[in-house]
Design goal:
The protein is α+β, with helices and mostly antiparallel strands and 179 residues long. The protein contains five helices and eight strands; from the N terminus they run αβαβαββββββαα. Helix content is 39%, strand content 22%. Strands 1, 2, 3, 4, 5 and 6 form a six-stranded mixed sheet that branches. A two-stranded antiparallel sheet has the order 7-8. The two termini are 24 Å apart.
Length: 179
């Protein structure tokens, strides 16, 4: 495994432990969520993406800055918070819950837009000794499929097609209880 992957896995372990100790709920999203769902590193990743409750953002920010993570300028306030440490970038999409139970974008221009149903129903994933909750595989597929439609200026990326196929294979394997 490359140094970048090792550093990213160490950051996932550190942030997961920090969040649990602080009572903050996190869910991996993106390529690392797929890897944790299938149980192995399948490709290189540019960053680490998470979902978290917007109300917990100030506490997480304080915890991360104590550990020398530096805040980055990013999307509109209330939509996402981004940090870097030693070349590792981590992003936290901020979510809120509507009265009807829907999980929505917490702020920015898409405030109130619903994320896929059941997005937070994903299992705990694992790579080696590192464990983390992940968004549901069905939500992951929907997000990767719909992103070019939701954001027309963003074309479908080959890595998204790879991830969709890999998640679908794992869903089928689990459904059929294959080794």
């Amino acid at each position: 495994m490359s140094d970048q992957r090792t550093l990213q896995l160490e950051a996932i372990a550190e942030i997961t432990d920090l969040a649990q100790a602080s009572g903050i709920e996190l869910w991996l999203e993106g390529g690392w969520a797929m890897d944790f769902y299938v149980g192995e590193v399948t490709r290189a990743h540019d960053d680490i993406d998470w979902f978290m409750w917007a109300a917990d953002a100030p506490l997480l920010t304080a915890c991360l800055t104590e550990r020398r993570y530096e805040p980055l300028m990013g999307p509109p306030v209330g939509q996402q918070i981004d940090f870097t440490q030693d070349g590792i970038e981590v992003s936290f999409k901020l979510i809120a819950k509507e009265e009807n139970g829907s999980v929505v974008v917490a702020g920015g221009p898409w405030k109130g837009e619903a994320w896929p149903d059941g997005i937070l129903d994903g299992p705990e994933g694992r790579i080696g000794d590192v464990r983390s909750r992940v968004i549901s595989p069905h939500a992951q597929i929907e997000i990767k499929t719909m992103m070019p439609i939701w954001m027309p200026g963003r074309p479908r990326r080959p890595k998204d097609l790879f991830d969709i196929a890999r998640i679908e294979d794992e869903l089928l394997r689990r459904e059929n209880r294959l080794p």
